[in-house]
Amino acid sequence: MAHEYRATVAWLRGEQPFTDNKYSRGHVWRFDGGIEVPGSSAPDVVPVYSVAAAVDPEEAFVASLSSCHMLFFLAFAAKFGYRVDSYEDNAIGEMAKNEAGKLFVSKVTLRPDIVFSGDKRPSAEDVDKLHHRSHAECFIANSVKSEVVTATMPLRFA
Predict the structure, then answer these.
(1) From CA 58, how far away is CA 81, in angstroms rounded?
(2) DSSP letter (8 states) at residue 142
């Protein structure tokens, strides 16, 4: 059975002339359950007409890779009996030109800072294996051609 995921992206011109290319890039993303997220182009791509407080597609791409990886990591850690107290990833996406000269998100570096507690404590090798398995299973990572790497972070315990 195939899974489907839907999102609605909506933009309105309002009073802007539009044809002069001086229009707001601000829009809204709507997801199931009724949540709305403000979206925009990246301010460094379209400086004047972007909404800096909104999420741009490049940020969302990086966040989706990070979130997918984290969800698998947490599931696998729980399965092996490792108690995770917190997980915070300051992921970074890098743009470059592809072979056709077009910009794309060429690399995403995940930098998860994870705090473990409890009696069963993973070794650095255990954590590395959890990251490798999480990457291999992540639906989003399996859907893109960008390089996705996980930086080695120090083990932390509460």
Answers:
(1) 35
(2) G
pLDDT in tens, 79-123: 999 999 999 999 999 999 999 999 999 999 999 999 999 999 999
Q: pTM for the complete prediction? A: 0.89
Q: Where in the chain is the domain with CATH 3.30.300.20?
A: 57-157
User: Smallest Cα–Cα separation from 23: which of 46, 53, 54?
Assistant: 46
Residue for token pair 């291999």: 136
52, 24 contact by CB (below 8 A): no
**At 117, phi and psi to the nearest 5?**
-145, 180
What is the predicted pLDDT for the residue at 154?
83
Q: What is the CATH number of domain 57-157?
A: 3.30.300.20
